[in-house]
Amino acid sequence: MREDKLLQGARVFLRPLNANDQDTYYTMFFNNDVRRLTGTKQAFTYAQIENYIANKWKDSSAVLLLICLQETEEIIGDIALQDIDTTNRNANIRIAIGKVEHQSKGYGSEAMRLMLDYGFGILNLHRIELNLFDFNKQAARAYEKVGFKIEGIQREALFYDHAYHDSILMSMLAHEYRDKYLK
How many angstroms separate the CA atoms of 93 and 177, rounded? Predict the structure, then answer.
């Protein structure tokens, strides 16, 4: 059994990224669906991924964890609290599930709840926000189900695949999280 299971749920656990994860992480970002849904345009080299992993632990404004299945310990994605602002107690959250066969099974929602619990309960954040693109209807429904509320729309903020797309800003406040999950 792994000793680095930082956050554990019923079906997934979250653990830190390490040097042994380079191949998996590199492959995950060359999946066309992951790139489109996250708005990723840059093509990363293996050396860039290696450098990113080596330096990520130094970044005190982010918590990056891998999403793994409890049964098999397979890495299925990643999740991050980033741009952590300790003065205003805000952060941004992002998530990516790497393969279609792992999507729409509730793994992302469980990982999101684990990270929200960490953000609100351990880091003492007040507000956690995220952005998604208007073509990602499935994610919008999942985020609303988890408890995020739409705050606004950045019109035509992303140019991808020959078209402009709106970016939808959603957030959750600590008391909203506690009302939904701790009572």
Answer: 14
- The angle that helices 107-121 and 137-146 make with each other, rounded to 10 degrees, is 50
- Under 8 Å between Cβ of 149 and 172: yes
Distance of CA 16 to the CA centre of its chain: 13
Distance of CA 128 to the CA centre of its chain: 12
Mean pLDDT, rounded, for 155-180: 95
Rounded to whole angstroms, the Cα distance separating 145 from 130 reads 14
Q: How is residue 38 written in tokens?
A: 């996250």
pLDDT in tens, 7-52: 999 999 999 988 787 777 777 766 666 655 666 656 677 777 777 7
Closest by Cα among 121, 101, 130 to 181: 121
Amino acid at 92: N
pLDDT confidence tier of residue 146, bands split at 50, 70 and 90? very high
Helix axes 174-181, 107-121, angle to 10 degrees: 120
SS3 content of the chain, % helix, strand, coil (to 5): 35, 35, 30
pLDDT tens digits for 98-110? 877 888 899 999 9
Q: What is the pTM of this model?
A: 0.87
